[in-house]
Amino acid sequence: MTGPPRPADPPRPPDPPRPAPAGPPPKERIPTMAKSPPNSRPNTTPDSTPDTATTFSDTAATTASTALTHIAALVTNDPSLGDGSPIGLIQDAAVVIEGDRVVWVGESSKAPPTDNALDLGGRAVVPGFVDSHSHLVFAGDRTAEFNARMSGRAYTAGGIRTTVAATRAASDADLTANVARYVAEALRQGTTTQETKSGYGLTVEDEARALRIASDHTDEVTYLGAHIVPPDHADDPAAYVALVTGDMLDACAPYARWIDVFCETGAFDGDQARAILLAGRAKGLHPRIHANQLSHGPGVQLAVELDAASADHCTHLTDADVDALAHSDTVATLLPGAEFSTRAPWPDARRLLDAGATVALSTDCNPGSSFTSSMPFCMALAVRDMRMTPDEAIWSATAGGARALRRTDIGRLTPGARADLTVLDAPSHVHLAYRPGVPLVSSVWRGGVRLLGNGVRL
Ligand SMILES: [Zn+2]
């Protein structure tokens, strides 16, 4: 592989502890659809054993050990394993899970004895995808906007403002149902960690509501009160920044881990973005930035200056921006669904990788500019149109996303990692780009629990 990512960096220490939030503590959440009885599988079962009639079965993790065997190709993301490449590919592999953790990986023939075994029949296994950038708390529909754009017509309705109006008008129950639906949709496509943001409320109450609902579905919650200046503050953006850094931040911080800002002409300039992110940091939120999406701007340099976990989009970069990213812990998160859905120029992944920057891939799932929840689709775009290799794409969609969330427990399949893994109805992870648009996900495990198994044989 040329221009490999940098998987061998030592794990960074966890973020410093935040002040105790006033709201509920983060906790692991699992889709609550169709609970099945506790796992009663026999000791050895094929992966094609159907789960309950619906897609999800919420079997409890146990301390019994389970070996997943006959894995044609296992992506570990540990270069000390397997073929020694950055993705640490092991052929004819096995994974042993105990409780919610991976406790052993290696060649199938060397697997230790376990309480249970599951024959994966020559499928490939990859770490569960880490989607580190999405906007799932919304209501309304922007089909007409997309249709107009793809038909070459100007669309003059409100864009983000359309979604803001619909989201403010929606009930808690409707917003909750939408988030649950899209988290489940992503899970069916192999995503086991989902970051999501506010940003379509833009009032104190609506932003706090969005984050409270998001926090019921994921631990990776981002406060994006600074998405745009809403129409009700159009005449006084400074007053809106004061709100975002004041009462709105106070109401939102208990539900969020991250703070984000759309740093772009027409949204928030560099000085405003710095003030917003520093205010969030003072409340224990860590920065990430929508940076350099539509034009060159100060977003990337600000991200590096503030040690943001991620600079997201990175479509328009100067040489100085690329150099700054390459010499920082800030991940360049590329979101090709946005360029696909707006017919915009692709971000230059090859340039970033060759310079030594850490690159993540994510969906940017939102109803306006990138309405896909599919990490495999984004990987296929990255390989086909952004000149990433298939190995780089799988690394960026798993380990890269984990870096962008400053997590060391996910994005890899090595002893001690959380047992989040996606089983493919394919013999290699390369099929994720080689067979674009094909539903290759066979089963998904999160925290040692099998959440999805579709019963499809190779
Ligand atoms: Zn976004």
UniProtKB/TrEMBL annotation:
EC code(s) of this entry: 3.5.2.7
Keyword set, alphabetical order: Cytoplasm, Histidine metabolism, Hydrolase, Iron, Metal-binding, Zinc
UniProt-annotated binding residues for 4-imidazolone-5-propanoate: R142, Y200, H227, Q293, S369
Metabolic or biological pathway, per its Swiss-Prot or TrEMBL entry: Amino-acid degradation; L-histidine degradation into L-glutamate; N-formimidoyl-L-glutamate from L-histidine: step 3/3
Record: residues binding N-formimidoyl-L-glutamate: Y200, N366, G368
Cofactor section: Zn(2+); Fe(3+)
Binding site for Zn(2+): H133, H135, H290, D364
Main location: cytoplasm
Stored InterPro entries: Amidohydro-rel, HutI, Metal-dep_hydrolase_composite, Metal_Hydrolase
Domain of life: Bacteria
UniProt biased composition (Low complexity): 36-56
GO cellular component: cytoplasm
Binding sites annotated in the UniProt record for Fe(3+): H133, H135, H290, D364
Compositional bias of kind Pro residues: 1-25
Residue ranges occupied by any Amidohydrolase-related domain in the UniProt entry: 311-429
One of the record's GO molecular function terms: iron ion binding
The keyword Oxidoreductase appears for this protein: no
Entry function: Catalyzes the hydrolytic cleavage of the carbon-nitrogen bond in imidazolone-5-propanoate to yield N-formimidoyl-L-glutamate. It is the third step in the universal histidine degradation pathway.
Xref: NCBIfam families: hutI (TIGR01224)
The name this protein goes by in its record: Imidazolonepropionase
Gene coding for it: hutI
